[in-house]
Protein 1
Amino acid sequence: MSKKKIVVCGGNGFLGSRICKSAAARSWHIVSLSRSGAPTWSSVTSSPTAPDWASAVQWEKADVLKPATYQAFLEGADAVVHSMGILLEADYKGVLTGKESLVGGLRRAFSATKGGSDRNPLERGREDGAGDGEGGGEIRSAEPDGQITYELMNRDSAITLAQESSFANVPSFVYISAAAGAPMLPKRYITTKREAESTIASSLPRLRSVFIRPGFLYDSSRSFTMPIAFAGSAGNMVNSLVGGMLTPLAGAAVEKPLKADLVAEAVVEAIADEGVKGVVGTQRIEDLANVGWRRGML
């Protein structure tokens, strides 16, 4: 199998770093893009020091909202991965941490709509001096206070990155989506992800787009994820016994939790297997990971 180049936007995060690890095991050329560069290892692994595989990754600083900071890294890439997003918006976090009033914060957090970017990501102008096929300008929050919303990060940043990938003639684009929403999250968390999937699939047909939809991700290096995963597994078993009747009500809360390393391996195998396209749900994620691990044993 030929050596591939992949660009992982959000490569220093919980899942993104594991995608880099899985790609490094295949001796691929890996570029990680994030605003801070290399990870703070204690936040993504059980050790404060960089693992051996980290030296195989090109850790670069870039801003997903500012294409000019990452366009050069897309050149010659076989695949680009969007592994960024927000689970809680700032105002929702503010309520949970006591920094915002309960009524005001929750009203804003659970509002039906919020501003995404200050322009349609697919209609970004060329005022930055870029020519045809060379990409467009940056996107900014449309919220008066500049808040990073689900619309901006989960949807518009992904569409922008996918469009820039298409401009750079990158053949494959992987978007880390989600299996479903959850009762404790605003509905916009999942609707913005679905809007991103739909727009990328319909508006950027030159890309082989893959939409990874895992449930809750866990790993022993993040001890707080283990009891949540245990509860999720129990909920998934109950949901299976009642024929999936709980899914419309509980969403991701009853989806089978997946180990982060398993999802990462599935992402890398999906990139390697050019027959994979479109939505990839829980069972397909597990199947792809198993294929990848068996390949590594040969």
Note: The first strand starts at residue 5 and ends at 9.
Protein 2
Amino acid sequence: MVSNKVNLHAYAIPLLHAAKYPASDVCGVLLGKNTTAGIEVQTAVPFFHHWTTLTSMLEVALEQVNIYAKKNDLAIIGWYHGNARLEDHVLPERAIKVAETIKKNNNDKAIIFLLDNKQISKLDQDKSAITPYINSDNQWKKIKEPFKNEEASFIENDVYSKVCGLFSSSAYNRIHDFDEHLEDVSLDWLNVSKMSL
């Protein structure tokens, strides 16, 4: 059975990115390591809130993050996506295309996080605001009961309550994505993955 582990940073950063831009689609990469049983998702790097389609800027961002990941002994192992509309729970085709490329470049392993905007708006300490998808039999399948079984589980305890605390302290204001970096190069979008939580 596949066993994927998820760190607090990997869960919190995509949610904070979506909270900073609640009226926009948001997306980014997940960084971590391959394990014998699956993958360990350690952190995330926010990419876009303006240009979430497949563009040349995506290639630039992916290349920069790939260099950054290698310097930090990590790999690009997944993709996250948050839809702009509250009721939109559909995994977009463009997210699948990026994840397929990541999977091809990562020993046939990858994970997708789809953010649940409705759940983000009412953060709950018992229910995930992220739905993970894994590739099984050449299809991206939703993990049922995320972070409550071995298919995707947290490394740390009390992740939901820690994320609630981050939202209460407006930690999303410390998130910068590649779009922002293009507008103001002094904003360090890569080291968001190391922000103190």
Note: The radius of gyration is 15 Å.
Protein 3
Amino acid sequence: MPLPSDETIVKTGGDLVAQLQSAFGKHAGMRPAHAKGVMLTGTFTPSTEAKKLSIAPHLNDASTPLTIRFSNSTGLPKIPDNDPNADPRGIGIRFNLGPHVHTDIIAHSTPFFPTRTGGEFLEMLRAIAASGDDVPSPKPVEKFLGSHPKALAFVQAPKPAPTSYAREQYFGVNAFKLIDEEGKATYVRYRVEPSLGVDTLDEVALKDKGPDFLHEELVQRLEKEPFSFRLMAQVAEEGDVTDDATVHWPESRKVVELGQIKVKGLMPESDKEQKHIIFDPIPRVKGVEPSDDPLLEMRAAIYLISGKQRRAAA
């Protein structure tokens, strides 16, 4: 996983890591965002439809081993699971294709994202940081949200807490191209849908939960049996925007099932593994290609810069 070749992207990525650490504190060996999490193991079984859409190995092989990470928002490693700021929740899925060969999917529990570019996201974070209680209105963050309707939509979008990581739906906000055996490209956005159905908590019920209720529930659930998700792909039509994570595709667009994700158990030495693994937003596998969404290279820079910091601290 190399750094992007564009020096501006690398510089902005580094500034974003520093800004997140300024907001949440610099915690050695931890991510600057989605710091609190848990690692699991599983398998992926592709559907017949997946094989029609892409020649990617994980969409054609009978089964692929998975590394999965569920997480809470913010860069606070000990943020309580019942803190409203812990939403949206996140999921990282690694398809292990061979020794040091893999491809990843990264998603979170809302279809919204606040900005199209990393530069705008940095501007938003700086506006938040400059908007303390002693700053008169209109505060910098109010001005930013007033001039960036997509960011305001993200802030205002409902983000209810799940009763379980296994009962949450996750959305990939970036578009990708699936390439079939004839070279035809199909633009998609991933969705990870719980086989058990979505189940969320209202504010009152959330307050009654413990600070680690999601992790505890996960342990209890997996002691009984595995659980699963369906990996779905929302398919773009001609004219749909594929290079802007803030623009939604109509819900009337076709959604196809790519396969089943089965979560089998907790990963041994989960905390150690979380410090080491660096998820990659860029597919880097034959049969799946990135779109022109500028967030993809920016996210890759952020993940690699912060990942190297984690590994050095560990």
Note: The CA atoms of residues 46 and 259 lie 4 Å apart.
